[in-house]
Specification:
Chain lengths: ~240, ~240
Amino acid sequence: MIRVVLVEPREPRNVGAAARAMKNFGLEQLVLVNPERPLDEAAYRLATRGAADVLERARTVATLDEALADTVYVVATSARAREGYAGEVYTPREGAPRVRRMAAEGPVALLFGRENFGLSNEEMDRAHAVWRIPTGGYASLNLAQAVLLVAYEVFLARAEPRGTARPRPAAAEELERLFADLEAYLIQIRYTDEHRLEGAMRAFRRMAHRALLSPNEVQRLRGLLRQSRWAIAHGGDRVD
Amino acid sequence: MIRVVLVEPREPRNVGAAARAMKNFGLEQLVLVNPERPLDEAAYRLATRGAADVLERARTVATLDEALADTVYVVATSARAREGYAGEVYTPREGAPRVRRMAAEGPVALLFGRENFGLSNEEMDRAHAVWRIPTGGYASLNLAQAVLLVAYEVFLARAEPRGTARPRPAAAEELERLFADLEAYLIQIRYTDEHRLEGAMRAFRRMAHRALLSPNEVQRLRGLLRQSRWAIAHGGDRVD
């Protein structure tokens, strides 16, 4: 299943227009993260009757964590080039075949940011892939336009071939536990100073996201960290 | 050059939203055919400041003929499957490379119909190609959404290779003179009855549009019709 996640949308009517855009291309699951205002008359008017059911069944949650907990693949979208974002960036057309494949493995989230300033870097860090929608010189896609183009590309794409059978990828909440363990560990072993910790975590996140770790692999890595902490606490193989 | 032609748009704000969609993908020429109301405050608000210049330079004309007179290639768009339209229908992705090539030869028009019922069959007959935007089950793209998706595909497409050098294709007004001659001729020679004339003309139009006739070829065909009329008037080679 593919869900559209709107992060802190300001205007209910933009949510309505996004619902209509989704429905045109067969996407029906909408999640709103901490919207500024509840859905209203204007939202339903913009959705038109055809997409009213998308709004009726939309889920509102307080945090991005809740929206992503069970997802196996997350795409962050961006209408602009992101300064300071060093990860790999794909166009929707490049990335859509993978979304189609991952949707067969578990819930996939397509993440859209706020009308005025998009997604924060921390929110982008939650994604396996970032999609930038290519535009001409004047790039000012609104929320519903971005949803429309992304939904269109996903609709037209064929699933990427699956290759050899692979286990289901870990869900976001499992991965986040690994990242929490890792961050605590990096601090404990003084891997880097406070200022560089964020950048280091980002680099590790990217590797893990690219690897599409399975639940077993996540457990293995967490076990490695746990054993390392134990070794530190017990002096490891120090001979004294 | 590629122009967007909106046929009898009802709502100025839809024209504004379409202008914004165009501008995102580098299209700047907008022509309005017999709009129901003039552009207003709402149109400029929906265009946003970035696309206000598209509205300011938009040309309003009374007839489709005026909008298409100098074009060498015309695409009619449709968000729905057209019953009763027997011509070839492409998706925007299939058709976009040809639009890119033809735009190097002369003005190209992308034609969008009314918000409520699209383009009439007679208007579709003016096009070299019909594009249908593929959608999921619930197909209810609004005008600006249709413009956005078409502009996006044209923006991303590369020009189809040109093959051997070919002369510039005839402009729409030259072609229309050929069609007018042909229709008069069909009536004169009683080629078909009144009821089937429209369908016959449509079939001839399709052939001519697919052939991308040059101005010389159009003259040659009109000459053939003229000579045929002369022969009829003078008894041809009747031996008596």
